[in-house]
Design goal:
Blueprint: H1 9-24, H2 26-31, H3 37-49, H4 57-60, E1 67-68, H5 78-88, E2 94-96, H6 112-119, E3 127-129, H7 138-147, E4 153-155, H8 164-168, E5 178-180, H9 188-197, E6 203-205, H10 209-222, E7 237-238, H11 241-250, E8 256-260, E9 276-280, E10 284-286, H12 287-293, E11 299-303, E12 306-308, E13 327-331, H13 337-349, E14 355-359, H14 366-376
Parallel strand pairs: 1-2, 2-3, 3-4, 4-5, 5-6, 7-8, 8-9, 9-11, 10-12, 11-13, 13-14
Helix pairs in contact: 5-6, 6-7, 9-10, 13-14
């Protein structure tokens, strides 16, 4: 039973009733064809979440369909299903073949030729997940480069047959914003090449990030003209002040940052766009500086960090920091009265938290938690 005050509770209950009817009555399934497209899509998403098998392709594979995933749940064998998707779904924008999410022992056997044939029929594709697709080849990536000019998101994680040759084909996808090719046979040189070829990239994930960042570091120190990129999220964990300077300089739109070293000083080089900041073993995390420098911050993680400059929080009873902060995680490995008092002050002042995680805070007692709740209220928690 969903939470009674939730606005989604009635929707969830009614959806579950319809789902039970669908799964137990073929006649109801046939009648669903006349339902509005938005309701059909909603039902499909819920059925996928529940991993209900034998979905009627005549209902959920339609001309208006924009998103398809969990192909193993449909009532058709894989190749006829792909053929039907290619023939019918002319407005398809989101397609996931990720077999990693399949039940144990179930394998999607999709020959590269069948995949290439499908890609030729869905030119509007914007998001494609081929993660763990063992039969993905350079030829498949070449087809993506030629036939998917609107592609924004691509994941080819664990596509072990993909090499530099295939990755280079993606240079034609100039609108690509998110690329994840971890655990492939691409080299550092191939990774750096495609990074430079895609000007719209915002998310770039690879097992070779350390090598790519080393090349970016060399470029930073050797070029007289500064080159910046549109990246908002990387795999980099910053361990020194120089790398923090480089990262925030060449990626001025960075939204997510992880700092992992007690020697890193946060008195500079944080971007105004940061929404996610994770600090591990940072000696002194200046709360006032972070609050003022990162007004858009939504998630803050403090792992084994001491926080400083908290007295400014007491200057005005009406002042509340981190107005956009929704998630706060605190892990205290070395509890002291001073550390606890600083964190208590921070917790009392963060009024808009939706998620709060406290770990290893051994000096946090029932009475302290009661006081925090009384003073904060946590209306959105």
């Amino acid at each position: 039973m969903p939470y009674l005050k939730s606005p989604l509770s009635l929707d969830e209950l009614s959806t579950n009733i319809v789902i039970n009817l669908i799964m137990n009555c073929e006649q109801v399934q046939r009648q669903l064809r006349n339902l509005p497209v938005t309701l059909i899509q909603h039902l499909y998403q819920r059925l996928c979440q529940l991993k209900r098998a034998n979905l009627y392709s005549n209902i959920f594979i339609r001309r208006e369909t924009k998103s398809i995933r969990d192909l193993n749940l449909f009532d058709l064998p894989m190749e006829p299903l792909l053929d039907k998707i290619g023939q019918v779904c002319k407005n398809l924008t989101d397609l996931s073949f990720n077999p990693y999410k399949l039940p144990r022992g179930v394998v999607l056997d999709i020959p590269p030729a069948s995949m290439i044939k499908l890609l030729d029929r869905v030119p509007q594709l914007r998001s494609l997940d081929l993660c763990h697709y063992k039969q993905c080849t350079n030829e498949v990536l070449a087809e993506i480069g030629r036939k998917c000019p609107q592609l924004r998101v691509l994941s080819i994680v664990f596509c072990v047959n993909v090499t530099d040759v295939g990755l280079r084909s993606l240079s034609y996808c100039k609108k690509l914003e998110s690329l994840n090719f971890a655990m492939t046979n691409v080299t550092a040189e191939g990774a750096f090449y495609i990074f430079k070829q895609l000007p719209s990239l915002k998310v770039f994930k690879t097992s070779l990030w350390d090598d790519v960042f080393q090349m970016l570091r060399e470029e930073f120190y050797s070029n007289t003209t500064l080159q910046t990129y549109s990246i908002v999220e990387t795999c980099e964990r910053v361990g020194n002040n120089d790398d923090l300077t480089i990262l925030t300089t060449i990626f001025p739109n960075l939204c997510s940052l992880t700092v992992w070293n007690s020697n890193v000083v946060l008195k500079r080089n944080l971007t105004q766009q940061l929404t996610n900041l994770r600090l591990y073993y940072v000696g002194l995390a200046d709360i006032e500086f972070i609050d003022h420098q990162c007004p858009a911050l939504k998630s803050l993680s403090l792992d084994s960090c001491d926080i400083s400059n908290t007295p400014y929080l007491q200057e005005s009873a009406e002042y509340f920091p981190f107005m956009n902060l929704e998630e706060l995680s605190i892990l205290c490995r070395n509890d002291t009265d001073i550390v606890v008092n600083e964190f208590l002050l921070l917790l009392v002042k963060c009024k808009n938290l939706k998620r709060l995680r406290l770990s290893c805070c051994q000096l946090f007692t029932d009475n302290l938690i009661t006081d925090i709740v009384r003073l904060n209220g946590f209306e959105n928690l």
